[in-house]
Design brief:
Layout lengths: L1 H14 L7 E2 L20 E4 L18 E8 L7 H6 L2 H8 L11 H7 L3 E8 L13 E4 L21 E9 L7 E4 L6 E2 L18 H30 L17 E4 L12 E4 L5
Parallel strand pairs: 1-7
Antiparallel strand pairs: 2-5, 3-4, 3-6, 6-7, 6-8, 9-10
Length: 282
């Protein structure tokens, strides 16, 4: 009975797709190589661009008008969630509307963040921006790079929620005639964002620290101890008076008689003598 119910639900899910299905492009989006900086973070990841895979020109728009968009949906990679895969995931929701004209306001970035099991689309570029010529450098697209789009347009490329996984696909969209998805790539494998660890769960024990952290902590501790010892020594010397300069105090001259030198005139040939004169201040 349960298997029959799942089969019916799957059939209903596929039958809800109205209109003609998009052309399938044999391309699976992938993350940039390991040596690329910041390839996966807690809220962003970097994808390789689908060069030359959407080279066919559509009847309703030219290569300068046709647009390549990226669909970002929550990924499910377990048969246990088979039921939810067909009813309540971003992948299923996109597959149910990709054959009709898209309403970006309904499946917006803000709605995808609120529901947690939806999808949103963001524009990557026009069709002519992805030629078949071999590029000299790797061309990439960073998902979640716009940190200011919480209140921005519905198709903004905002950061993804932490501790989540996502699946993505590139689509070719006709904004002129049909306003539908005309071609699409395959879904990517689940992309796991970098896990954000709760601060209360971080082990700060000495054995969990790296060698560099231990060396830096030891050096800083020694320098702090030396500085403290120097301050204590300077304070002790200041309080004990060691190093103060001695004051050379000269006793005043005692008051008494003053010897006043008496000069004779030049015509007097008697020798100069000194006479003691009483000090009038005594």
């Amino acid at each position: 009975m349960a298997l029959l119910l799942l089969a019916v639900l799957a059939c209903i899910s596929f039958c809800t797709v109205n209109g003609q299905n998009p052309v399938q492009v044999p391309y699976v989006p992938g993350i940039t190589p390991n040596n690329f900086p910041g390839r996966v973070t807690s809220s962003t990841f970097t994808l390789k661009l689908p060069l030359c895979y959407f080279s066919q020109t559509l009847a309703g728009c030219t290569a300068a008008q046709c647009e390549i968009w990226l669909v970002v949906a929550q990924g499910v990679d377990d048969l246990i969630f088979f039921y939810y895969y067909f009813l309540n995931t971003g992948q299923n929701r996109f597959d149910s509307v990709k054959g009709v004209p898209l309403d970006f306001n309904v499946n917006s970035y803000q709605a995808a963040l609120t529901s947690g099991k939806s999808f949103f689309m963001t524009k990557v570029g026009t069709q002519q921006s992805f030629p078949c010529d071999e590029p000299t450098a790797m061309q990439v697209f960073r998902v979640g790079s716009d940190s200011t789009c919480v209140a921005g347009p519905p198709t903004c490329n905002g950061p993804l929620p932490a501790n989540t996984d996502a699946r993505v696909k590139y689509v070719l969209y006709d904004p002129i005639a049909s306003k539908k998805v005309e071609a699409e790539s395959q879904w990517s494998q689940p992309i796991l964002l970098t896990k954000v660890k709760d601060l209360v769960n971080i082990d700060e024990s000495f054995g969990k620290r790296s060698g560099a952290m231990v060396v830096i902590t030891t050096v800083l501790t020694c320098l702090t101890a030396l500085l403290l010892i120097g301050l204590i020594t300077a304070l002790a010397l200041t309080c004990s008076g060691v190093g103060r300069g001695k004051q050379d105090i000269t006793a005043p001259t005692p008051l008494g008689s003053l010897r006043v030198k008496r000069y004779n005139t030049h015509n007097v040939h008697s020798p100069t003598s000194s006479t003691s004169v009483p000090n009038p201040n005594i």
